[in-house]
Amino acid sequence: MIDRIEKEIELAAPVERVWRALTDHEAFGEWFRVKLTGPFVVGKVTTGEITYPGYEGLPWTSLTERMEEPRLFAFRWPHSKNPNADLSREPSTRVEFRLKPTTKGTHLTITESGFDSLPEDSREEAWCSNDKGWEIQAENIKAFVEGSPSP
Fold first, then answer.
1. How far apart are CA 25 and CA 40, in angstroms?
2. What sign does the dihedral 123-126-132-138 (CA atoms) show?
3. According to the model, what pLDDT value does residue 55 have?
4. Where exactly are the structural domains of the chain?
5. pTM
6. Which residues contact residue 123 at a Cβ distance below 8 angstroms, ignoring those fewer than 6 apart?
7. Helix, strand, coil distribution of the chain in percent, nearest 5
8. What is the pLDDT of residue 84?
């Protein structure tokens, strides 16, 4: 079993636009399909509700770990069946977005790690589901930043 997922995508959009799409909670919600109740703040929990088709109404919880504008945004999210789980006590994985400017826009690397910390009986299912999910989300952010006006 692999402990991490890594996706790379080239975006025909400036780093500033991609940074905003990742770190502004409303912009993030549009392409990720989640309605967040507030902004991402380092050291703080962000909550909301998933709006992605087939997952509507499921709770979203994340703990923002790093925001180093405009190159690194990272958060942790739980992998618990319990919607009221305490993020600090539940097994979680770390999602990291790394941005690098290129001549055509932005190179975005999405990494999710920490699957080895999940319970063995749900680890493979979580990895497979999220591996497919990040393929979809990489295309979603591409469509969002390449189709939206400059900030």
1. 6
2. negative
3. 87
4. 4-147
5. 0.92
6. 1, 115, 116
7. 30, 35, 30
8. 62
What whole-number distance in Å separates Cα of residue 102 and Cα of residue 117?
Answer: 35
Q: What is the pLDDT of residues 74-102, one digit of tens each?
A: 999 988 766 566 666 788 999 999 999 99
Give the position of tokens 């990494």.
111
Cβ neighbour number for residue 137 with a 10 Å cutoff: 19
Length of the chain measured in residues: 151
Q: How far is the C-alpha of 139 from the C-alpha of 136, rounded, in Å?
A: 5
Give the closest residue to 33 by CA, choosing from 17, 16, 48: 48
CATH code of the domain occupying 4-147: 3.30.530.20
DSSP string covering 30-55: HHHTEEESS---TT-EEEEEE-STTS
Q: If 0-12 CB within 10 Å is exposed, 13-18 middle and 19+ buried, where does residue 28 land?
A: buried
Please tell me whether residue 138 adopts helix, strand or coil conformation: helix
